[in-house]
Structures are given as C-alpha cells and as structure tokens.
Q: What sequence folds into this?
C-alpha cells in the first residue's frame, strides 16, 4: 500500500467482502426457506389432495377415492405425479374399488378471464354427471352464477354428450344434451359448455380406446 | 393461434395489469405527469417484462423443478439483475432519458407488475411462446394505462379542480373511471 | 413550535396517523387495492405484511453493522423475500382457503414499497427496539388502512362485513365496489377524507398559534 488515504474517505469494503455478505445472506435465507418448506410440505400436500378429492366426489356421485391418470402410448396410465405438459384425468372409484367414472378438467375463456372447471363423466352412460367450477373471475351477481346458482349447476347432473352439449335460452331446454343458460350471463354459460365440449373432444376418443372397467396400466406395474 | 390472440388481448385490455389487477400502481401514480416520460418508462418496463418472461420460463423448465421453494427469490434476483442491466444500457445509449427517468428506473425492480408477471406465468403454466406473448401483452397494457393516465393528468393539471381533491386522490378517482371504461372490453372474445 | 425528542412512543405512533403508509406516504398501493374486496382478505393481508415488516426490520436493524452500504438493497431484498416465502408456505399450510383467496398477492408482499422503504429509511440506521416499534407502527397503520378500505368495499359491494350479512335479502349490492374500479374510487375518496381532516387540524393549529401570538 502507498501513501495513507485522506481521513475523509472511509475504507471501501473489498469486493470479496461484498460477495461474501451476499453469499452468506443467501445461504442463511436458503436454510430458512428450505426448513419452512420441509415443515409445511406435508400439510400443504394433504390440503391439496383433500381439495382434489372433494372436487372429484362432488362431480362423480358415488366416488370416494381417485387416481391420477395420463394418456401415454395409447393407454391410460395411473401415475403418482404427471410430467410437465401432460394432461391429466382423474379416475373416481367407489368404496368397493369399482370405477365410477372420470373427472375431467376443462377450461375456456369466459367473460372476464379463463374459467377452469372439473366435470364428471360416466362412459357407459355417455353422460356428464356433475360439474364444479374451479376458477372464475366472472362478474359478481351475473357471471358468478355459474357456481353460485344451484339450478345452473344442476343442469350438469345428467347431461348427454352426444353430439355435443349446447346452451339454450333459459326455460327452452328440450333435448338431453342441452342446458339452460343463465339469463344475463350467456357468455359465461357458453364458456362452461365450451370447456366441457373441448375436453370431451380430447378425452372421449381416448377413453373409448381404453379398456372399460378400470384395468388401466399403472406406472409402477409397467416398471416391473 | 387463436389461443395466443386471446392471451394477448386479454392481458392488454380485458385484464389489464394496472386497471384490473392493480399492479404497477406506484409508477402509474408517480410517473404519469408527462406523456413522453410515461411512454418511455412503459416501454422500459415492457422490455424488462420480456426479458423476465424469458428467464422465468428457463428457470421454471430446468431449475425450479428441483427446488420449487426458491421460486420467489430467484424471480427477484432475475428482475433486479435485468433492471440493473437495462439501467446501464440506457445510461450508455441515451443519457437524457436516463436523467429524465431518474429514480424511477431502479424502482422498476419494485414494480409489482414484473414480479406478478413472473408469478402469473408460472401459475398459468404457459410455455415459451405463450409466456412471451403474455409478457408482451402485459407490458404493452401497462404502457397503455400509463399513457392514458398521463394524457388525462396533463389535461386536469390545467383544469380548475378544488384544491382539496388535487393530488393522489384525484388521480385515483381518474384511475377508477379509466378502470370502469376498460371493463367494457370484457366479453371481447365471445365463446359463442 | 418545539420539536419533541424522538421517544419510543412517537416512533410507534407515527405509523398510525401522521405518517400512515397508505394515506400519507401513499405507498404499498398494489396490495391495498387488490385484496380489499372483503374485510377478511384485508385482515389476512395486513397480518401477513405485519409479520414480514416486523421480522425484516428486526433482522436488518440487528445486522446493520455487517451489511456493507453497496449491497444493502440486495441484502434487504434477500431478507424480505425469505420472510415472505416463510409466511406464504405457513399460510398455505394453516389456512388454505384464505391463502387461495389472496393468491399471488402474498408473494407480492416482497415488492411492497412500504417494507423496503422502512428498511432503507429507518431500520438500517436505528437500534433494534426502535426499528421494531417503527415496524409495528407502520404495519398497524397499514393494517388499519386495509381494513377501512376492505370494510367499506364489502359493506357496499356485498352487503356484509366479515361474511356476516348486514342488510338482509332486499339489499341491492353496489357490485362495482368489489370490482377494480371500486377499489380505485374508494381509496381516492378515503384519501380525500383523510386530507380534509388533516387540513382542518392544521387550520385549527394555525388559529391556536395565532391566538397565542396575539395574547403575548
């Protein structure tokens, strides 16, 4: 070091010191975050699984448990966790292990933003047996009736899917594949219908190709 | 293609980040006195959003699968670094703009809109193309709101408004009216 | 006017009224408007912010001697982000329904200007007890602002408070209050009201001072 610095300027901390401080802060932060994560993970996973189970039970009357499935190589495969980008379908099983039907997720743009829902489908009867809205930002008092109005939700308790579901003006329902739209919320009602029709177009052919009575291959089975 | 258009228009107009989600209010209320500054800050923010969108996709796809709890921190670090980088670039290319933006340039880091973009993109599970379209739409939506607000403020600054209302209270009421107007965009893409 | 020595009580009180973060400093707007569509949401957000602000201020103040000036902002951010992640996971584990309601706005606490602002302006240059008092005061001031906004919006927009129906079935809710424009308008009007009160108080103080000067 050469001549001493003027007293007015305090010694600048070295770059090493700066990096070390940030590194230490990052390390400490990482430690705290990871421990919180590990502690809360069981609770969070339990809540999520419970919510999913409740939804499946709601849209598939008679189902008490579920299994996640994906469509791989032409078969329905039971998985623990789907891979990124894979669409899942949920199989609903009754207490005796019998397959009740499938809970299928769907989504479509609504009036305000995307509406996400889950609906129950029974292949043998080719009917939708239940519907639950998962996410919606529709207008309170109008569009939000898609989940608040029991009469609208009841439309989906026994709805034929052939050739496809259609929304008609309230009170004008004549065919088994029609639902009564909500007065003043036509767009939201039609979005719900579109979500189900789109998901049907994707999954119904797959389900028809798959074996009927719950003999889906399991991921773990395939590995043996 | 239809989906991408919906994503873009939805975040630009129907679910505008500022007027429907209340994001980026600090610069929206703080920097919108002059039209040209507002416009340039909007564009700078949009650029940061695009870069952030790209980094977020990369992080989500390759790294965060293994450490999801580091999501928030890594997003923040990416945003802070991007803003730092933009600051250096603007300082080099246009010192006048750098001076005009002043303190608000580093404040882009705390702009909730950018972090919200990262979080929303992750929650919606967008891929690379969808994510970039979403980032572009959101940035332009933010810029649109800023520019509209700046224009309105330039007018009302010259109008005889009671002293008590002047300032943030008035700007918020103007924002409320703007937000109501934007509600008219809902249903632009009918599911019919 | 005599300037009182900054005592601990003042550090706490100033956040409540005189330097209220929302109504006076006009900070932390994003969460204020977004989560106040119901009183319950406002409550949870206020509580979460209180945790983050107090914890961060405490830690920053305790470590201020070891944080070099050049990296202070980055260090603050790391500290704040850590506590926000902690509260995010905790809320998701403990009250999943409320966590879902608030959604992405809990992680957004990280960029709440109030928290960063207090670290920079106060916590980093004051001893821990004062920093904690300042943090508490600001948090409660913020909490109070959120609650005021949330209550007004819920009462007018839904007809209930904390889910308890107030007006009976024939009440026609003013729906726009719980939509985004309602947030802007309510905050604007509340700010207006706040300004008016402040103005009246100042006028009163000026009149008292003038009378005092005359009496001498």
A:
């Amino acid at each position: 070091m050469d001549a001493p610095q003027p007293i007015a300027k305090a010694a600048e901390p070295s770059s090493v010191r700066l990096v070390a401080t940030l590194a230490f802060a990052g390390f400490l932060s990482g430690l705290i975050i990871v421990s919180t994560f590990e502690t809360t993970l069981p609770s969070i996973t339990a809540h999520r699984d419970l919510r999913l189970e409740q939804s499946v039970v709601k849209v598939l009357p008679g189902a008490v448990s579920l299994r996640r499935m994906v469509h791989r190589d032409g078969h329905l495969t039971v998985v623990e966790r789907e891979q990124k980008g894979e669409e899942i379908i949920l199989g609903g099983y009754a207490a005796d292990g019998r397959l009740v039907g499938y809970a299928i997720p769907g989504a479509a743009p609504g009036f305000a933003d995307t509406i996400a829902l889950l609906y129950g489908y029974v292949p043998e009867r080719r009917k939708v047996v239940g519907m639950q809205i998962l996410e919606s930002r529709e207008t309170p008092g109008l569009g939000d009736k898609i989940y608040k109005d029991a009469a609208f939700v009841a439309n989906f308790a026994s709805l034929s899917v052939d050739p496809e579901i259609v929304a008609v003006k309230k009170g004008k329902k004549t065919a088994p594949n029609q639902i009564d739209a909500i007065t003043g919320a036509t767009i939201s009602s039609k979005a719900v219908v579109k979500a189900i029709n789109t998901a049907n177009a994707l999954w119904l052919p797959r389900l028809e190709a798959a074996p009927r009575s719950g003999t889906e291959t399991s991921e773990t089975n395939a590995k043996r | 293609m239809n989906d991408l258009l919906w994503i873009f228009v939805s975040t630009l107009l129907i679910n505008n980040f500022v007027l429907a989600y209340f994001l980026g209010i600090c610069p929206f209320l703080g920097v919108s006195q002059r039209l040209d500054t507002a416009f340039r800050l909007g564009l700078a923010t949009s650029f940061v959003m695009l870069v952030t969108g790209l980094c977020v996709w990369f992080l989500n796809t390759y790294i965060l699968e293994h450490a999801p709890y580091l999501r928030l921190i890594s997003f923040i670090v990416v945003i802070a670094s991007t803003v730092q980088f933009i600051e250096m670039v603007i300082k080099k290319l246009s010192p006048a703009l750098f001076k005009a933006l002043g303190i608000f340039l580093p404040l882009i880091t705390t702009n909730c809109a950018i972090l919200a973009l990262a979080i929303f993109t992750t929650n919606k599970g967008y891929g690379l193309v969808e994510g970039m379209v979403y980032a572009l739409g959101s940035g332009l939506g933010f810029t649109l709101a800023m520019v509209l607000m700046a224009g309105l403020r330039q007018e009302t600054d010259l109008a005889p408004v009671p002293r008590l209302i002047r300032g943030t209270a008035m700007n918020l009421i103007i924002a409320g009216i703007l937000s109501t107007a934007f509600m008219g965009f809902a249903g632009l893409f009918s599911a019919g | 006017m005599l300037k009182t020595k900054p005592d601990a009580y003042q550090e706490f009180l100033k956040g409540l009224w005189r330097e209220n973060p929302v109504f006076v400093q006009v900070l932390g707007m994003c969460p204020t408007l977004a989560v106040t569509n119901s009183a319950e949401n406002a409550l949870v957000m206020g509580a979460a912010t209180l945790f983050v602000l107090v914890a961060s201020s405490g830690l920053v103040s305790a470590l201020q001697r070891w944080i070099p000036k050049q990296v202070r902002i980055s260090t603050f951010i790391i500290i704040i982000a850590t506590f926000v992640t902690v509260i995010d996971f905790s809320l998701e584990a403990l009250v999943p329904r409320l966590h879902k309601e608030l959604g992405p706005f809990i992680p957004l606490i990280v960029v709440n200007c109030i928290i960063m602002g207090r670290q920079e302006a106060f916590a980093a240059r004051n001893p821990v007890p004062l920093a904690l008092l300042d943090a508490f005061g600001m948090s409660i001031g913020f909490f109070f602002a959120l609650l005021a906004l949330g209550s007004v919006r819920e009462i007018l927009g839904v007809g209930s408070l904390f889910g308890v129906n107030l007006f009976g079935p024939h009440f026609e809710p003013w729906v726009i209050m719980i939509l985004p424009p309602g947030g802007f308008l309510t905050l604007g009007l509340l700010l207006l009201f706040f300004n008016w009160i402040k103005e009246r108080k100042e006028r009163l103080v000026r009149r008292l001072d003038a009378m005092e000067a005359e009496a001498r």
Summary: Residues 49-223 of chain A form one domain. The first strand of chain A starts at residue 65 and ends at 72.
